[in-house]
Amino acid sequence: MRMKSSLTLALALCLGISLAASARAAQDDEIMMPEQSTAKAKQILQAAIQALGGPAYLDVHDVTCTGNLSQFDHSGDETGFGKFIDYSIPPDKERQENIPKRNIIEVYNGKQGWVLDRGGVSVAPPSDLARFQQDTLRDIDNILRHRIHEPGIVLRYAGPDIVELKQADWVELLDTDNRTIRIAFDRATHLPLEETSESRDPQTQLASNEIDLFSDYHPVDGIQTAFQLERDRNGIKVFQAFFAKCEYNTGLQDSFFTRESLEDRWAKVGKKQRKKEAKENQKDKDKNKNANSNSNSSSNNSDW
Questions:
Q1: How far is it, in rounded angstroms, from Cα 264 to Cα 255?
Q2: Quick one: 165 exposed, middle or buried, by C-beta within 10 A (0-12, 13-18, 19+)?
Q3: Cis peptide bond upstream of 100, omega within 30
Q4: Angle CA(191)–CA(215)–CA(143) in degrees, nearest 5?
Q5: pLDDT per residue as tens digits for the range 274-299
Q6: Contact 232/54 with Cβ under 8 angstroms?
Q7: pLDDT per residue over 248-280, tens digit each?
Q8: Any idea what DSSP says for residue 246?
Q9: How far apart are CA 141 and CA 179, in angstroms?
Q10: Global confidence as pTM
Q11: Strand locations in 90-178, DSSP E?
Q12: Are 109 and 133 in contact (CB under 8 A)?
């Protein structure tokens, strides 16, 4: 009974805090003039940039991270789990490989994309490329490093809140395409906690609400790095990424994010794949040959 009473009290307190935060948010929105709201939003964004590493964060050239990735289907059931390595040159070059085999690779470079799998190298499906371009526009690092300075971008303070059981402040961005992005920053650390945005699903063309969660921050080369990422789409978990290691500015080249780089990789892994397939085909032929031989032997014995 004591535990139940404590739980009830805790829930009531959380609800009270949330309601109070919502009330303060509404009050702030009512009393803040547009220029005041913009100034406060910029203040929060600048504090976040400094908390993430200041000049070291802004001057990042490339990022390499390894970890584990869990993916989920439309019903929320896990469909895959594996190790991966992700290379990127922000804001619009990315390459992701499965490890240790590195025989399934996706590369995106601006408005182009390619895939390497057991069939060779091919152009990325249009829906996947469209999603990558959407992700680039809403990428938290791209927003903080570049997009907040775009002409026509509107910034406003969207009020306080409780996010992941932490006091937070929301900042809202509206771009020239009427895309709205909201980001919650931890009031104590100034680090990003959550990002929400609305977009149109490239496959279904239906409105889609996406939420990204950032947690488990670690300092790497003077840059605060979220080692756990989660994405929910329309209330259903899409993926979870758990990084084991991240490195900055290792000297990645633009040529690493091209179709030619995948063709070079296919020349290596494809050769092994073809040898493996040829060996399997030969085994199947030998098996069929033996089966036919046994069949003929049985027929001859029957005739005898």
A1: 11
A2: exposed
A3: yes
A4: 50
A5: 655 545 554 655 566 665 555 555 54
A6: no
A7: 999 999 999 999 999 999 999 987 666 555 455
A8: E
A9: 17
A10: 0.79
A11: 93-98, 105-109, 112-117, 120-123, 154-163, 166-174
A12: no
